[in-house]
Amino acid sequence: MRKFTYNVLYILSCQDKKYHKIGVCKNDNLDKRIKSLQTGNPNKINVEWVEERTEANKAEKYLHNCFSENRAEGEWFVDVDVNDIRRKLMLFLDQR
Fold first, then answer.
1. Quick one: angle between helices 56-66 and 82-95, nearest 10?
2. Which helix (H) or strand (E) holds 76?
3. CB 8 within 8 A of CB 25
4. Is position 39 within any domain?
5. What's the mean pLDDT when you consider all of the chain?
6. How far lies 12's CA from each of 1, 39, 73, 78, in Å?
7. Average pLDDT of the segment spanning 60-66
8. What's the CA gap between 17 and 4, in Å, rounded?
9. In total, how many domains does the chain have?
10. How far is the first Cα of the chain from the last one, in angstroms, to the nearest whole number?
11. Residue 88 and residue 56 in contact, taking contact as beta carbons nearer than 8 Å
12. Rounded distance, CA 52 to CA 43, Å?
């Protein structure tokens, strides 16, 4: 029997939701991940959405490609909102 490993796909925001980060981490590391991102960032980072997934890395890559024109830096995107990201994620599910 195949054992599934779940990770979480998360969406974070900062600077009054101007910027969103699309990322992946292990289930038990989200709080640690947020704390590490918050260090050195003068803007409060907020959790907007979290989903446990078996193929979180593939979904993350898909979303990064979808919003590549909105990339501010690294995994941070500008001028998109959580609903835009979640709509694209639904399309990813339909393509599998």
1. 120
2. strand 76-78
3. yes
4. yes
5. 90
6. 35, 15, 14, 12
7. 96
8. 33
9. 1
10. 22
11. no
12. 26
